[in-house]
Amino acid sequence: MTFRGHSYRNLDPKGRMMLPPEFREVVLAHSPDGRVMLTNFDGCVTGYPLPEWERIEESFQRINVLDARLRNLQRFIVSGALEATLDKQGRLLIPPHLRGYAKLDKDVVLAGVVRKFEIWDKGVYEQRRLAMEDAFDVDMAALAQGGFELRL
User: Which structural domains are found in the chain, ordered by start?
Assistant: First the structure.
């Protein structure tokens, strides 16, 4: 099961957001009690099913602790993480520190990204999407030169 597609959502005054049914299904398939890990990454709030998050934490246990860049990455991602649980209505409470990091106010975009989902400020998401579209052909050519093949 994967997260795919995107939808426009609103945060309520408490910072809760309704997950669409297809995202709830993925979360509940991995965690019947509806638990996910939320963290800060790439300018958005990123949500992981618990098994996927456990793989990330496991990989951090194997980093070269002498590499300051890896220590900083570990510190940033893991220290920003918080476990959250879907409520009975299928809403997810995004904690204040993550809302602040991602500049989430009211209008957000929930984007499925295969093994995780991302929660973006709507304006930031639209800017990034337009920039990606402008660079699409160049980026695809560069990926193809590196041996990466994407079949659309």
Answer: 6-122 (3.40.1550.20)
How do the pLDDT tens digits run along the chain, 152 residues long?
Answer: 799 999 999 999 999 999 999 999 999 999 999 999 999 999 999 999 999 999 988 888 887 888 888 888 888 888 889 999 999 999 999 999 999 999 999 999 999 999 999 999 999 999 998 988 887 788 778 777 876 665 54
Please give the radius of gyration of the chain, using alpha carbons only, rounded to the nearest integer: 17
Alpha-carbon distances, residue 39 vs 43, 78, 81, 132, 138 (angstroms): 10, 7, 4, 23, 31
> Contact, 38 vs 86, CB < 8 A?
no
Q: Judge whether 92 and 19 are in contact, CB under 8 Å.
A: yes
